[in-house]
């Protein structure tokens, strides 16, 4: 049986340390900047080296996400960037498209590779396809139900790790362009280092705010409710998921800390006593109080559960 892992996003070095100290087995960071002095907008090379040392001293892992969709003229910088990540001993890369995977296989062939959420893995044939290319873990699409995950696990190679998001913001759509900035300025905003946060609200849905995040990689639209699967930890683990992941791009480090602690407790209680595991309603109440957003089980169940305030 593959080891179970609790993973979380870390926006900066402080967030990395908080996440690992709170109970995460691994963290993933955004790595869209191909500069030689920075790993991402929030991590310098030196900070990531410190974070990796901090993680490895605790037998934990750090993954770097390369979610920028590269153009032809990005490949030289990408190759340099991969060599830099290899030198500082990141534990793996999370990729979103096959072109980047091909470059990784040539430049850093021994690097562990995951295919991320943007790879749109909806079925076991796609999972097997990437496995045959050397991918060790696939992040399954958030639109899948538990029964779909069971089917993927049943038909995918036994040593292929399956990762699923269990808590946090849910992406509705993504664009490689800065859509809002382009629209509001009536011109191409190009690539900027500056991050921008917006909230979209529809006239017919007052009070339901959809966060929008822009950086040099493009625009991400999030849903008005956050995913929450704390009540269904046993079902997730039994389905074959080997990594349970918390999404925290738009959240504070304090938010991440509290969410990790709750999921760590729920997971450990199931692992230590699976036959007598009981859902604690206090976990859900605590999660509701961390952030002022409604919670939902998303697409996982036959019938969606909305945990409204």
Automatic annotation (TrEMBL):
Protein's UniProt keywords contain Zinc: no
GO terms classed as biological process: proteolysis
InterPro entries found in the cross-reference section: Peptidase_U32, RibuloseP-bd_barrel, RNA/ubiquinone_mod_enzymes
One function term, GO molecular function aspect: peptidase activity
Endpoints of the signal sequence: none
Keywords: Hydrolase, Protease
Source organism, top-level taxon: Bacteria
Keyword flag Protease: yes
Family designation: Belongs to the peptidase U32 family.
Protein name: U32 family peptidase
